[in-house]
Amino acid sequence: MNNYLQIHAADNVAVALADLAPETEIAIPDNRFRLCDAIPKGHKFSIRPIKNGENVIKYGSPIGHATQPIGQGCHVHTHNLATNLSGTLHYEYNPEFPEITVPDETPVFNGYCRKNGDVGIRNELWVVPTVGCVNGIAGQMVKLFKERFRHDEIDAIEVFSHNYGCSQLGGDHANTRRVLANLATHPNAGGVLVLGLGCENNQISALIPEIGLYDPERVRFLVAQESEDEIEEGVSLLASLYNAMKNDRREPVPLSKLKVGLKCGGSDGFSGITANPLLGMFSDYLTALGGTTILTEVPEMFGAEHLLMQRAENRLIFDQTVRLVNDFKDYFLKHEQPVYENPSPGNKAGGITTLEEKSLGCTQKGGLSKVTGVLEYGEMVSRPGLNLLSAPGNDLVATSALGFSGCQLALFTTGRGTPFGSFIPTVKISTNSELASRKKNWIDFDAGTLLLGAGSQAVLKKFVEYIISVANGEKVNHEKNGFKEIAIFKSGVTL
Length: 495
What we know:
Shape: globular
Oligomer: single chain
Largest sheet: 7 strands, parallel
Number of domains: 3
Strand order of the largest sheet: 19-20-18-17-21-22-23
């Protein structure tokens, strides 16, 4: 097996699958040469001479242009490659819908069926502060509850601390209220205590209408300033919620009941070769069954957004996708920041040079399915199929956003590794086997086997089986480690 890969026949670069020394002989079809540079694993080298200003092609698409002549067999990276991208763009709707094979099976998982028809994959008791001022009180309540009462008949008890809920205006305030309201009725929670202070902008009286219909046995409210002993009252409410949910039991439901978030972080040169295409295959599989996937990280779509736009189900979805992308570009420009200041240092160390290259890998997580919906930040998903969600690339903010929009779990590809986890199970999928071996306490699934000759359908089958086990209750590493957080997007001023 070669230690290098030309991904697409039109590419003028190849990717090193291992560290390659200068003078290493390369044999591309009808093309033999020797490397003129050392090529780190995951990085690119030219397979023919590239002129100054000529496009560099990877995945069959331009990923930028050469900033100097590049000889055959030379390292192609930040020293000689720059982005072609700038500003907002005009797009034309030219729909293309690749054929998707519908699975001839009806897989199931064992989930918690809620009264509103949603299905949870965890049965947890949550405390949701309306404002950061009561984070400490929430922690005290939970600590005292655990000391006094048995609590092993549910999956977990969590406090989702944050620093918002007051001193916010306009869209930020509305976003905070909306996402906290969504937490109150998330299917992974069997019971929720919404804890307010009393004087904050994010008043419980305004939050309740945002929540909409809820089960009063499963969602309770407490305003600390209105209670003589908020700790004792909070413990009592937690006990009531626990008693209401402790007898919940899993039951078989179709896999199509899953709503799965698609996310990447700490990407490397293998992300677009292994883990991201695996998520794309899974997304196509799940949506073909009638399930739902959500792709986010809008700034990391820049450069490959047209591939999503041409799969928009209709003109309305196309127009919404255009607005999604250009609005996020305008957000950067409004703050006088460069639109294409990406990839991160870790991405570059892993072999990714430009945003086009990163986006061509990122968007592969969405597979080949039609785009059936476009969601604003904090908006609940309502349409099955592949949806696009407005959220930034920041890992914790984006993964939280997926949960806020109704996902029961998130699939997170990484080539560099990360220990974090959101409030929903966050499955870490490594792009390379070395990372999976080195960080067993972080990584849940190794997609690097695709580089070692494992067949894509065999890996997909194994991956589907693993996701079903997670939906059935198997804990992923961040849950085992106790790393569960939320992060709320902020774009405006703080009072």
